[in-house]
Amino acid sequence: MAVLATVLGHPRIGIARDLKKALEAYWSGATPAESLLATSQEIRSRHWHYMKEAGLDQIPCNDFSLYDHMLDMAVTVGAVPPRFAGIATPLNRYFAMARGIQDRGAGIDLSPLEMTKWFDTNYHYIVPELEPNQAFRLDPTKIMAELAEAQALGIAVRPVIPGPVTFLKLSKFAGDAPAGSDTLDLLERLLPVYEELFALLAGHGVSWLQLDEPGLCFDLDGKSREAYRSALTRFGACPKRPVLLIATYFGSIGDNLSLVTASGCEALHIDLVRAPAELDAVLAALPTQMKLSLGVVDGRNVWRCDLEQAHRTVRQAVTKLGSERVMVATSCSLLHVPVDLDAEMKLDPELKSWMAFAAQKVAEVRALADAAEGEKPDDAFWGQASSALARRRAAAATSNPEVRRRAEQLTQGMLRRTSSFPARIARQKEHFGLPLLPTTTIGSFPQSKQVREARSKWRSGSLDGEGYDAFMKEEIRLCVEKQEKLGLDVLVHGEFERTDMVEYFGEQLEGFAFTQNGWVQSYGSRCVKPPVLFGDVARPRPMTVDWSRYAQSLSERPVKGMLTGPVTILQWSFVRNDQPRSETCRQIALALRDEVADLEQAGIAMIQVDEPAIREGLPLRRGEWSAYLGWAVEAFRLATSGVRDETQIHTHMCYSEFGDILASIVAMDADVLSIESSRSRMELLGNFRQQGYPNDVGPGIYDIHSPRVPSIEEMVALLELACEVLPVERLWVNPDCGLKTRGWPEIEASLANMVDAARQVRLRHATG
Predict the structure, then answer these.
(1) 575 touches 581 (CB < 8 A)
(2) 276 burial class (0-12, 13-18, 19+ CB within 10 angstroms)?
(3) Are 12 and 337 spatial neighbours (Cβ–Cβ below 8 Å)?
(4) Is pLDDT at 40 greater than 90 in this prediction?
(5) Catalytic residue among 336, 652, 705, 765, which?
(6) Would you say 698 and 673 are in contact if contact means Cβ atoms under 8 Å apart?
């Protein structure tokens, strides 16, 4: 039997962001549900056909989602919070859980479920919300419908679902759960629903099922280990089910290996891109009946696979296990890479030859499986791959001697502000004269159709630079005017000149390249096009100074300069894999240090350096945390520590679990931290209460990822929760995140409520 070829999942959005466009047309009321569902079916069909034609032996299904796979699984197991039960239409209920719903006329105002990062990626998942007495029930509508579609096309598929322990560990209880409640206590209630689904799938001809358990790559406590042991051994003994592939990824399975090998399940997938050293241990421990899926093609990055190295790995497994027990696969789902490199018509041909998107990675998997039982082939595909890798290693374009010399000359003094925070904040308060509970926003405001058209015309040459600058300055003027009318205390310029908070900077830094169609899903319909960071990073000229200087000239109130931080630029790019990430991050930080200095010199006295991705980059294993946090915090301090005491450094973080790294956030020593907290109803404040936070904080009180307008009363309640934990004189008032994706009417209504809420709480505490 030949070695099998497979992938763990496929991008959902379509080559031209077809899903995004269909979703937003449906949400706006421009198209009916039938149109959205037809587009979704066409995307699935297209992807299944091309994977079949590319020769994959097992093709995933149920990896497609209209919004998020964890939300899909919550619906599948009946974990729909009671507040959504009154929405009769399943599709409307589904999107209400994801986005919230507000209809004042009908008396409907429902907050969405919480959203946070999927492990260490920039993909955001919807956090299932459970009750302590949660009753699960199977709703197989989605998975069975997509299975029927594939079978009608004559395509045999392997369904993909989140495993029960990962599902529960990534879920949370509703706010009124008793203290000490643990979602793993619901495992025995949940397992029968999985077994019911197994039997249903087996009865409909499904021979293999992929059970995603990336939670096995965490350090597990005793309760979690017992949960895995109980669930997997029960599944191993389940009499009516498909063959189970237990898929781990994003790290090493390490000391959790025995939980799978002793389970009786038939197959294990390991991520040999993130954890290449663990193959020997896995091969030694694998029971004779278990198959092994080798994740040797990187599902997280866009670089071409080193086929010769991957071939050696596959050959090692085949020699030990035999070809009938080996599968070749991507390291994880291809959700995290763009669809097809062939759609890139403007990339430098040499750089393009170094790269692979989802379609090309499928071909790499197939080639490795075909070569698994012998020597690597001497054919064009393998020859082109080897040649491209050799040229990349020798390319002068990836190295800048001056950048490397500067990085080597860093000193510890460059990582520290001149004075401690108490001394700095006293000078800053005197300088700015802000009221108690100052109000601000995170940075971006809506980019209208006119803004996008002006940028497109400028890039095509039909609008000259002078005309483009005039247009953007008028947008900035109007934005500043609106903020002043709303009564905000600290303003921003709106970021109208920026396509994306990382792409904008990458376009002005050396070492980056850009795609036309390299889109990946961030959440729901939100897609991002990460830059390709292929070489050493340098800043040829100032990037934001003119826009910020102009905005500040329009107002007597402080206008923040807005930068994206070094770790976030790193995390949200497709980063070179030929040197340590820490070195690349240090180069970015040095470039930003120069920008911060130029902003200060231009009279910008508040500078926000956003780091929403700092928690995202945290490795899954705690033993690797210290090294990562060391260089990540150092990079932020390198970028921001060269300013005077009177210059106030802000940072922003969102949609991650920050409690575990609060000490490192403190070590970043930003003067003001704005941080997402509204969807979780200030859950983060518990960490502040336990661990303390010495500097100023703006816990977000307005969830910008939902189209609903929060009431004044709602925001007052959240602010009062914050005042119970942190001194009111160290609190700021702001939304959770930037406002680029929202519309002006809802923004103005929400910010007006936010300013009013701040005034009410300010008055209460000023007179109390």
Answers:
(1) yes
(2) middle
(3) no
(4) yes
(5) 705
(6) yes
CA distances, 705 to each of 72, 344, 523, 678, 742 (Å): 19, 31, 10, 10, 8
The two three-digit tokens of residue 514, written as one number: 């850009």
- 177: exposed, middle or buried (C-beta count within 10 Å: 0-12, 13-18, 19+)? middle
Residue 642 to residue 645: CA distance in whole angstroms: 10
Q: Which residue has the tokens 């393009």?
A: 352
Task: Encode pLDDT of 705-755 as tens digits.
Answer: 778 899 999 999 999 988 988 899 999 999 988 888 888 999 999 999 999
Tokens at residue 37, please?
């569902």
Query: 282-306: string of b/e by CB count within 10 Å (b at 16+)?
Result: beeebeeebbbbbbbbbbbbbbbbb
Nearest to 679 by CA among 647, 701, 656, 664: 701
3-class state of residue 513 by DSSP: strand
H/E/C letters for each residue in 691-750? HCCCCEEEECCCCCCCCCCCCHHHHHHHHHHHHHHCCHHHECECCCCCCCCCCHHHHHHH
- Does residue 311 have an active-site annotation? no
Nearest partner of 66 among 24, 7, 103, 120, judged by Cα? 24
Q: Which residue is listed with tokens 């510890």? A: 412
Instruction: Please check whether residue 556 is in contact with residue 434, taking contact to mean a CB–CB distance below 8 angstroms.
Output: no
499: Cα within 13 Å, side-chain hemisphere: 20
Q: Which residue has the tokens 């210059």?
A: 647
Question: In 3D, which of 362, 407, 364, 410 has the Cα closest to residue 384?
Answer: 364
Task: State how far the Cα of 379 lies from the Cα of 708, in Å rounded to an integer.
Answer: 57
| CB neighbourhood size of 523 (10 A) | 21
> Which pLDDT band holds residue 103 (cuts at 50, 70, 90)?
confident
- The DSSP string of 433-472 is -PPSS-B---SB----HHHHHHHHHHHHTSS-HHHHHHHH
Q: How far is CA 157 from CA 1, 362, 370, 643, in A?
A: 19, 15, 20, 58
What gap in Å lies between CA 370 and CA 358, rounded to an integer? 19
Q: Residue 343 above 90 pLDDT?
A: yes
**CB of 671 closer than 8 Å to CB of 649:** yes
Scanning the structure block, which residue is given the tokens 């859950």?
Answer: 683
Tokens 């200030």 correspond to 682
C-alpha distances (whole Å) from 138 to each of 172, 189, 190, 379 are: 20, 12, 10, 50
* CB burial string 205-225: b at 16+ within 10 A, e below: ebebbbbbbbbbbbebeeebb
End-to-end CA distance of the chain: 78
Q: Are 78 and 158 in contact (CB under 8 A)?
A: no
- In the three-class reduction of DSSP (H, G, I as helix; E, B as strand; rest coil), residue 650 is classed as strand
Distance from C-alpha of 4 to C-alpha of 364, rounded to nearest angstrom: 13
* Vertex 253 angle, CA 250 and 254, to 5°: 130
Note whether 513 and 568 are within 8 A (CB): no
Percent of the chain topping pLDDT 90: 86
Kind and range of the H or E element at 125? Answer: strand 124-126
- Does residue 589 contact residue 635 with C-beta atoms inside 8 Å? yes
User: For residues 61 and 160, is the Cβ–Cβ distance under 8 A?
Assistant: yes
Which helix (H) or strand (E) covers residue 327, if one does?
strand 326-330
Torsion of CA 275, 277, 279, 280, to 10 degrees: -160
- For β-strands 243-247 and 267-271, DSSP reports them as parallel
Measured between alpha carbons, how far is 271 from 293 in angstroms, rounded to an integer? 9
